């Protein structure tokens, strides 16, 4: 791992909000040329959120995202701009569909189909939120790292102790530097480290950005591995997300409840549900990742 790139990476709340504003070059063409998130490659959550922002700019205000389906095709180059080309596939009476391509060096690195829907009524139900400790009862990730500082290599401590775009409180703590085998379940409380602009689509975009963080971690839990394990190589393959709570505004703690029903064939599946602190279902997510164990 390139330690200099680790130290130079920027993940403050303000920088993430900046990434949710794109330059419009033409009706269906957008560009981001600011500082990208990521370590060795662009963070997938950034490209997901930006592709959604580009698609959202091409639909009317009465349309809201209800789902996205994305494929990661090539690693994103950290120090290069990203172009987003939007294809207006269909404008229907109730649903609009857009396909977005993210491009670097004249190559498509990512594709995503986004579906928007006008508000409609209908039957409704939702699952119950897992019974977990309230966020006020838990220490945040930085506090837990401070208590286990000896596990973090000295050259990485500045990076891993740095405040980032959101605060995370882990229910089932498993240190990435000394992972223990455990059930493939991960519940974390999340809260932005700042006030998201008062626009619903920005709140949805910030949620999409965060949805890529840690979703595949439960795939490794039963094997006593983490993304910091020296013998593991991992990458996201595809990502799908459904938005259920149309009036969602992220102003309090939310629970990201994730699990992995299966890992095998060098692939693992992660599933997640976002809940409000009051137990309302916000969104559902799935992601499949590539996992290869290096031979010693």
Task: Please give a handful of descriptors for the protein shown.
single chain, 296 residues, alpha+beta, Porin, twelve-stranded antiparallel sheet, 7 helices, 12 strands, 37% strand, globular, disordered N terminus
Written description of the protein model:
By secondary structure, the chain is of the alpha+beta class. The protein has one domain: Acyl-CoA thioesterase, double hotdog domain (Porin, Beta Barrel). Strands 1-2-4-5-6-3-9-12-11-10-8-7 form a 12-stranded antiparallel beta sheet. A hairpin with a 3-residue loop joins strand 4 and strand 5. Helix 3 packs antiparallel against helix 6. The longest helix has 13 residues. The radius of gyration is 19 Å and the shape is globular. The N terminus is likely disordered.
Q: State the low-pLDDT regions, or none.
A: 1-9
From N to C, what is the helix and strand string? HHEEHEEEEHHEEHHEEEE
The class by helix and strand makeup works out as alpha+beta
CATH class: Mainly Beta
Strand content bin: 35-45%
CATH architecture assignment name: Beta Barrel
- Helix proportion range: 10-25%
Largest sheet: 12 strands, antiparallel
List the helices and strands and how they pair.
Elements: H1 3-8, H2 13-19, E1 23-26, E2 29-32, H3 44-56, E3 63-72, E4 82-91, E5 95-104, E6 107-118, H4 141-147, H5 157-160, E7 166-170, E8 185-192, H6 200-211, H7 217-220, E9 232-243, E10 254-264, E11 267-276, E12 281-293
Antiparallel strand pairs: 1-2, 2-4, 3-6, 3-9, 4-5, 5-6, 7-8, 8-10, 9-12, 10-11, 11-12
Quick take:
This protein has 296 residues and is an alpha+beta fold.
